[in-house]
Every structure is written in C-alpha cells, then in structure tokens.
Amino acid sequence: MLAKWKQGQLQAKEEPLTKWFLLLEANEDQEIAREMEGQAMSDPVLHKAVREWERLSQDPRTRAQYLSRLKWKMDYHSGLKTAESKGRIEGKAEGKAEGKAEGKAEMAQEAIGKYLEIRFGEASLDLQQQVRECTNLEQLDRIINNIYTAATLAEARAIIAGTLEKGRSK
C-alpha cells in the first residue's frame, strides 16, 4: 500500500483506510508526516488522533512501553531469522520445522518474560516461569498479542491464565 501511495496510485483524501495506514507510517517518513499534517487540518477525527498521538509520545511511561514493544518486535524477528538459519544448517525438512518452531517458541518465551520483568518486576517471577514452561507456539502468540494491554499484574495474570487454560481444554 505504501509503494502505491508513493507512486501516486492512492490518495489519502479519497481512501479512508489509506489515510489511517499513512498515519501509522508517518512516524517513519517525513513526506508522509507532512501529508498527514495537511490532512489533519481538514479532518477533525484525524486531527484529534494526531493530537492524541503527540500527547502520548510525550508521556515517558507510554514512550517506554512503545520502545519496549519495538525492541521486542526487533528481537522476535531476529530470533525468527536465527531459528530459520539454524533449521537450514540442520538440513532435514523435519529438523527445519522443529528448529524453527522451537526457536519461535523460545523467542516468544523470552520476549514475554522480559516484558513481564520490565513492567512488573520480581512480582511477576511466577508468571515468567509459567511462560517458560509453555511450549505451545499458538498460546505464546496469543499471550504476546494480548500482554501489552495489561495495565496491572492482575490483568497480566488473567491473560496468561486464560490463554493457558484455553489450551488445556482443547
């Protein structure tokens, strides 16, 4: 979508989804940021979103959470590449799939554990242990997708317990 916009094939004014996609990309590209600033002047909803984004960007806690999530994503993708490389070296198709899945699971466990440690400290040690014991990649992915919404340790516990419980009942 970004390539089509840069080639002039998509217009943010005419395509509402394009406008919101570009807003998410504006942080990385000055050209897009200028376009979105112009759009925000004529669109009250977009203007409110930009103002809220700017407010959140100034909040140190929100910024730290954002940077933590960004670091996790980079570590996760790096781990995937490492797992993929590891699988290639092993040579067999089965070894590849297993190595890749194990690598993904280990990276997910590590990312969730680090997030819990940074966010909730030593109070989350039991949760970190539960996550390390989980090897189900699907469950780990669900935890990752939801754990960043937890504002309290109790919410994090509920997310992890609910996800692991669903896996046991299948």
Care to give the gist of this entry?
The protein is 82% helix and 0% strand. Helix 5 (60-90) packs antiparallel against helix 6 (93-120).
Structure description:
This protein is mostly helical and 170 residues long. The protein has 2 domains: 12-58, no CATH class; 65-169, no CATH class. It contains 9 helices and no strands. It has helices at residues 2-6, 16-25, 30-42, 44-58, 60-90, 93-120, 125-133, 137-147, 153-169.
Level of helix content? over 70%
In total, the number of domains comes to 2
Q: How large is the radius of gyration?
A: 20 Å
Strand composition percent: under 5%
Report the sheet with the most strands, covering strand number, pairing sense and barrel closure.
none
Topology:
Elements: H1 2-6, H2 16-25, H3 30-42, H4 44-58, H5 60-90, H6 93-120, H7 125-133, H8 137-147, H9 153-169
Helix pairs in contact: 2-3, 3-4, 5-6, 6-7, 6-8, 8-9
Index terms:
single chain; 170 residues; mainly alpha; 2 domains; 9 helices; 0% strand; globular
